[in-house]
Each structure stands twice: as C-alpha cells, then as structure tokens.
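Shape matters. As here.
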Amino acid sequence: MKIVVVGGGTSGLLSALALEKEGHDVLVLEKDKVGGLCRSENIDGYTVDIGVHAITMLNDGPLTRLLNNYARYIPNFREYGDYYVRTDKLQKIPVSMNEWMT
C-alpha cells in the first residue's frame, strides 16, 4: 500500500519507519527541514538548538514502543556543560519550572 506521511518531525519519521517495516511504500512530506523542531543549526559558527533535543522520563507508550521496535537508537551525549549563551553571557540552564520562569 502507498502511504503519505505529512510531517517529517519525530512522530512522522517514526511512523514512516514503522509503516515501511510493515511493507508499505511510504512518502514523507515536510515543508521545512526533516527533523521538524528537533534539530540544530550552525549560525555564525555556533551550534544552536532549534527545538527539543532530549526526551526524558518516557513512560511506556506509543513513542517508546516505536523506538524499541523500529529504531536503532543509541543515545548520543555531548559534554556542553550546564550553561547556554544568552546575550553574550553564559547563563545557567534552569533545572526546575520556577527557575525557567525567572
């Protein structure tokens, strides 16, 4: 069966992978860049995270089943420290909701 998946973000790509493994002919359509909001860009020599790059504390559900059954997922950890650059200054990455709000 020919199937079109609209959206090349995490969910779209995993869905397309699962459908292809089941023998379907899959076409993924993405209006921007593959990966959706889960990607990095190089801007003026800096690697900038565009969106989500970590999914933590996953409970058993559709996403974990797709990852476990169809993806050869090997975590890639990079040492960047606990800071990010904001207005030419290093800012500590907040670890709680209250810290994000201030």
Remarks:
- The helical segments are 10-21, 62-70, 97-101.
- The chain has a mean pLDDT of 76.
- Residues 2-101 form one domain.
- The chain has one domain: 2-101.
